[in-house]
């Protein structure tokens, strides 16, 4: 039922050494956010995805590898194809699209145990409302049973995002200097991982 609204089910007991919360407590924290619904996007949602993706690229260009100019030039069919080949989760707050996050598993045999959380963006009006936590929890719930670890890259200056990922059990394992370049300025990225086969570490 992957396309149904997800309430971030967490199926194993255990305590997060970083937050002191059990999986059930983390689940309840997300599930009790009033008016929040999270589901995977379908190709029929392409127009919604296009709008929020372009907004993300325009509002926070330093956070993404792609650019507003490149994707704004693409037809709607391009976004339909992107949704069709990807696992893109969307958070709806009181029925309004508030944020997105993507999931993709590695394809090569030797890396099939790994997945990437990518393209996360929460609209400014919905920040500090638990939307980011809900999206990350949905990605991790989707990943369990499919892969052993979820990786992500985050711009080092984005302290809010780093705190969020850390609270959700991700740990920093690397640092890439000058990872991105936007309008002549370099941005470093922190590499983070959450291992799904070692309790909550």
Shape annotation = globular
Q: What's the order of the H and E elements?
A: HEHHHEEEHEHEE
> How large a portion of the residues is in β-strands, by DSSP E?
25-35%
Calculate Rg over CA atoms.
16 Å
Please report the distance between the alpha carbons of the first and last residues: 27 Å
Mean pLDDT: 86
Q: Order of strands in the sheet with the most strands? A: 1-2-3-4-5-7-6
Task: Give the helix level as a range of percent.
Answer: 25-40%
List low-confidence stretches: 1-31
Query: What kind of sheet is the major sheet?
Result: 7 strands, mixed
Fold topology:
Layout: H1 23-31, E1 36-40, H2 46-59, H3 68-72, H4 76-85, E2 87-93, E3 96-105, E4 114-122, H5 131-143, E5 149-155, H6 159-167, E6 171-182, E7 185-195
Helix pairs in contact: 2-4
Structure notes:
- The N terminus is likely disordered.
- Helix 2 crosses helix 4.
- Helices cover 30% and strands 30% of the residues.
- 31% of the residues are buried.
- It is globular, with a radius of gyration of 16 Å.
- It has a 7-stranded mixed beta sheet, sandwiched between helices.
């Amino acid at each position: 039922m992957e396309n149904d609204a997800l309430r971030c089910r967490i199926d194993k007991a255990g305590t997060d050494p970083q937050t002191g919360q059990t999986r059930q407590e983390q689940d309840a924290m997300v599930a009790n956010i009033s008016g929040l619904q999270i589901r995977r996007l379908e190709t029929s949602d392409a127009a919604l995805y296009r709008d929020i993706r372009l907004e993300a690229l325009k509002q926070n260009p330093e956070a993404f590898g792609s650019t507003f100019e490149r994707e704004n030039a693409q037809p709607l069919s391009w976004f339909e194809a992107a949704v069709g080949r990807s696992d893109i989760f969307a958070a709806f707050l009181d029925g309004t699209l508030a944020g997105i996050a993507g999931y993709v598993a590695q394809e090569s045999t030797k890396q099939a145990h790994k997945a990437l959380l990518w393209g996360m963006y929460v609209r400014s009006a919905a920040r500090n409302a638990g939307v980011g936590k809900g999206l990350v929890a949905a990605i991790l719930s989707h990943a369990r049973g499919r892969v052993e670890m979820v990786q992500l890259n985050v711009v080092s200056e984005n302290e809010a995002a780093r705190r969020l990922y850390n609270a959700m059990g991700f740990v920093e394992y690397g640092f890439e200097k000058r990872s991105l370049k936007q309008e002549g300025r370099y941005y470093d990225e922190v590499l983070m991982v959450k291992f799904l086969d070692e309790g909550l570490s």
